[in-house]
Amino acid sequence: MTTQISPSPRRTAAGVLPNLVIAGVVKGGTTSVFTYLSQHPDICASSKKETCYFLPLRYGNPLAPVDQYLANFSRYREQPYVMEATPGYFEGGSKLAQTMRETLGSKTRVIVILREPIERLFSFYNYQKAMLNLAQNMTFDRYIEACQNMPDTEVCKQVNDPYWGIKGGFYTEYIDSWFDVYEDSLKVFFFDQLKSDPAALLQQIYAWLKVEPILPDSLRVENKTVNYKNAWLHKAALSVNMRAERVLRAFPDLKDATRRLYFALNGRPFEERMTEATRAHLRSVYEPYNRRLAVQLTHRGYRDLPDWLSSAPTGRLS
């Protein structure tokens, strides 16, 4: 073992539970970070990236038997860290965060990766189209209108998750719930760091986890959203990917080769671009939330904030 500390994942008679969770945010680069960390010898990654085990709590539903959760960590070989990543957890509030801590143990560490909300929204919109959850003829402006017109009582339902795009960028409404439960065991990182220098971001995460800084051989972008040419072929590919995810994650080179072949056959770039008028509108929507988030993070000791937060005032919370 190369680790410098002795974290202790919680064990049960049926298996081991994770003690490292990437809890947010959707389209914030969590797949890339999960993939990079999976290659560290001191980290056992779940066989399926998004186990979604605690996600029912976000929608007011009960949890499945814990044995179903344990099945995701059958590859555990005494590594100090056991990890999963379900970015939808972040908006689950205090109940989800507290239940997760009670289930996994007080020594569990949580990573949250935040992305500039306008760019995250546009990526989320393209992702929902790529997942066939939105009509291909829906424009970004129509999507924004649909999100804003959907009542809060409806948009919070799991069936309407594709229209959660705008609210998913209101990070300030969720972050304190996680800090209150996990305190110093939660660390916020930024997509900006991942995009500009993924190796430096990994070094920060390794230092926080207190493991040896062993970088993976490749730092390629994972889960990049790509449009498709043929809808039938794309639907079939999504089904195969969902069924074969555990196998493909066990053989990352095979996964990469399969993905590259599919994109060469059926992938094409998204052609739609965000207009300046739309960007200005979204900037006005997110500005008050970003200002408050900057205050929250500054009060938690964060100083090197990205540009979309660094210009916000850091006075008293109102």
> How confident overall, as mean pLDDT?
90
* Biggest beta sheet summary: 5 strands, parallel
Structure annotation, total helices:
13
Oligomer: single chain
- Strand percentage: 5-15%
Radius of gyration: 19 Å
Large-scale geometry: globular
Describe the strand arrangement of the main beta sheet, using strand numbers: 4-5-3-6-7
Computed structural class: alpha/beta
Distinctive features:
318 residues, alpha/beta, Rossmann fold, 5-stranded parallel beta sheet, two-stranded antiparallel sheet, disordered C terminus
Map the helices and strands.
Blueprint: E1 11-12, E2 15-16, E3 20-24, H1 30-38, E4 43-45, H2 66-70, E5 81-85, H3 93-104, E6 109-114, H4 117-130, H5 140-149, H6 152-155, H7 172-182, E7 186-190, H8 191-196, H9 198-209, E8 227-228, H10 231-250, H11 252-266, E9 267-268, H12 276-299, H13 307-310
Protein name: Sulfotransferase domain-containing protein
Keywords: Glycoprotein, Transferase
Domain Sulfotransferase: 18-212
